[in-house]
TrEMBL record:
NCBIfam families assigned: sigma70-ECF
Family indicated by similarity: Belongs to the sigma-70 factor family. ECF subfamily.
GO biological process, one term: DNA-templated transcription initiation
Domain RNA polymerase sigma-70 region: 22-85
Protein name, UniProt field: RNA polymerase sigma factor
Pfam families reported in the protein's UniProt record: Sigma70_r2, Sigma70_r4_2
Organism: Cyclonatronum proteinivorum
Length: 191
């Protein structure tokens, strides 16, 4: 392994100090965007690699979380575009495993993460959020879940602040409509 210069060591220390505290937040956002833990991990890894590569363009002491979210969102969009242009592919090993699990009639899993994730995905709120169109879901997640301001979201998504307000309003209304039954079942009044 090559010896690192003091500037490279300082870059690593600064990066760790500024960026790594936000790993959980960007993973949660990636998981909500992709709805798949493996894809979310890949997206976070891609985000961290890009952030480190372009760390010299980051202004130390500014909003590191917003900077990371913007990189993550751009990576997600680029990956989505790339995948949408490819024809649908099926991995034979995945199909054969599914076929064997159906044949054996034993579909119980002992993987705790899988059980927890399956329960999370059955949640009415998560499902309703996942069903929102991507533009609305992204803005609702960034504002209502992650707590970013309209200005920060507009900068991350590179759209006017009025568009953010509009998407947030429409996204919240779509979410409200989707969650009416959920609210009634839990005794919330519709005033």
């Amino acid at each position: 392994m090559a010896n690192l210069t003091s500037a490279e060591i300082q870059k690593q220390q600064d990066f760790n100090e500024e960026m790594l505290p936000h790993l959980d937040a960007i993973y949660n956002f990636a998981l909500r965007l992709t709805a798949d833990p493996n894809d979310a991990e890949d997206l976070v890894q891609d985000t961290i690699v890009k952030a480190f590569r372009f760390f010299s363009s980051y202004e130390k002491g500014t909003n590191a979380k917003a900077w990371l979210f913007r990189i993550l969102k751009n990576s997600y969009i680029n990956n989505y575009r790339k995948k949408s242009k490819q024809p649908h592919q099926v991995d034979y090993s995945e199909v054969s495993q599914y076929y064997e699990s159906v044949r054996s009639e034993q579909s119980e899993t002992t993987d705790l993460e899988d059980l927890m994730y399956r329960e999370m995905m059955d949640d009415d709120v998560t499902t309703a959020l996942t069903e929102l169109p991507e533009d609305f879901r992204t803005v609702v997640l960034l504002c209502d879940v992650e707590g970013f301001t309209y200005e920060e979201i507009a900068n991350m998504l590179d759209v006017p602040i009025g568009t953010i307000r509009s998407r947030l309003h429409r996204g919240r209304n779509l979410l409200r409509v989707r969650l009416m039954d959920y609210a009634e079942k839990r005794g919330f009044n519709q005033d």
